[in-house]
Fold Beta-xylanase.
Amino acid sequence: MAFRGHCLVWHSMPPGWFEGLKGDALKNAMVEHITKVLKYYEGKIDSWDVVNEAIDDSSNGPQWKMRPSFLYQNIPDFVDLAFKTARAASSTTKLFYNDYNTEGIYGKSEAVFNFVKDMKSRGIPIDGVGLQYHVSTQSYPEYNKINDLIGRYCQLGLEVHITEMDVKSGGNAQAQAKVYSEALKACLSNSCCKAFLIWGVGDN
């Protein structure tokens, strides 16, 4: 079975001992964690979400703002460090940034695009972007929006994975099907979109 790794660094739900570390102690623990996990799964997992949900929800358009998490407060460059550490641990694993509200509906979509574009321009080793795609039949990206966004990631030379797609139906199964199918169509229309994952196992 092919599967992707999720995730190496996330501010939410960490072990208490990890969240309690400060400064260099936290930095060293993060580096050790990334290094050991990637080396352990070398050759078994070919893609990892290195960092999950680091951009603040208030980010808009060209401006991104880092989420004021314990990670950012202790290690302001933790995203750069995480990706550099991951690449040093494995030269072959594809390294992804993963986030929500990044599918083209919100200002955060453009902010994350510009954040990742900046990482690329500074030589940070990133191979792809995960679009979580938690949407509903009341709030979802039109086909042209998501198709354009994925296309622009392709132009940056990045791979795109739709990583956590679910669509709240609001009682409208037909509209729900349309949102799923348009997301898949946009993925299939762009050669850099390589994965389409559904959030949850069942489809009641």
Remarks:
- The domain at 4-198 is CATH 3.20.20.80 (TIM Barrel).
